Amino acid sequence: KVPISATGTSSKHTGQHCPTSMMRPLQAGFTLLELIVVLLLISLVAALIFPRLPSSQASDLRSSARQLAVLMRYLEERAVATKKSYYLRISLDDDRLSVSRKEPAGNDNGQDDDPFLKRQPLIKGIRVSDITTDQLGTINTGEALISYGPGGRSAPLLLHLVAPDGSYFTIQALPVSGSIKVAAGYQEMIQ
After folding, report:
1. What whole-number distance in Å separates Cα of residue 25 and Cα of residue 23?
2. Of 22, 80, 101, 159, which residue is the least packed, with the fewest Cβ within 10 Å?
3. In what order do the strands lie in the sheet with 86-91?
4. Phi, then psi, of 122 in degrees rounded to 5
5. Nearest alpha carbon to residue 62 among 146, 149, 184, 175
6. Which residue(s) pair with 146 in the sheet?
């Protein structure tokens, strides 16, 4: 038999027409039950996956901590390489950071032309909770001036960032080795 149309076949030898369906109506689409089952499965999968996705605030906090750590490390390396003194000025009240270079006359308003030093590492909503240094103790308001001399940082620094949801990241800068460590949570010291 050789097919001659979508509804039947033809016998080569007899020439007879044999329908494959007896005028059954064509069914297109899905039933309501099928649609409900599919929506139920999609909802179940979404309910299982959604809580595991990282929140925007958590990723903003982590990104801000990493960017600030990179800026601090870069600032230390730049101070050592150029044999110049730099300051990282952190305003805890409005969460602004700025970098200035100490000029030979003692003026610390020297702006560096490096665009990397002009970036704001903190994403909107992320703020500096507190800073602890040997010179300043622990401060959570006002302004902190972190010095980077030709020999790098001379004292340890502990800085805590906080997100609007109350989660923290800790940044620890150690002198001598120049290492900068970043860890989730509010920690007094990173091991």
Report:
1. 6
2. 22
3. 96-101, 86-91, 143-148
4. -90, 125
5. 184
6. 88
10-residue mean pLDDT series, the chain (191 residues): 53 52 67 92 87 76 93 90 89 87 60 75 90 89 89 88 93 86 90 71
Phi–psi pair at 114, nearest 5 degrees: -75, 120
Report which residue type is found at 100.
S
Q: What is the dihedral of CA 115, 129, 59, 153, to 10 degrees?
A: 50
**49 vs 4: CA distance, rounded Å:** 51
Q: 3-class DSSP state for residue 103?
A: coil
Question: E strands, 8-102, where?
Answer: 8-10, 17-19, 86-91, 96-101
Q: Whose CA is closest to 186, among 159, 172, 161, 168?
A: 168
Give CA–CA dist 86/154, Å, rounded. Answer: 13
Q: Is the whole model's pTM more than 0.85, yes or no?
A: no
Q: Other C-beta atoms within 10 Å of 103: how many?
A: 12
DSSP assignment of 166-187 equals: S-EEEEEE-TTT--EEEEES--
Q: What is the C-alpha separation between 45 and 121, in angstroms, rounded? A: 36
Q: Which residues pair with 170 in a beta bridge?
A: 160, 183
Structure tokens at 80: 């050592």
Give the pair of three-digit tokens for residue 115.
């665009």
What does the alpha-carbon distance between residue 45 and residue 99 come to, in Å, rounded to a whole number?
48
| Both tokens assigned to 58 | 């958590």
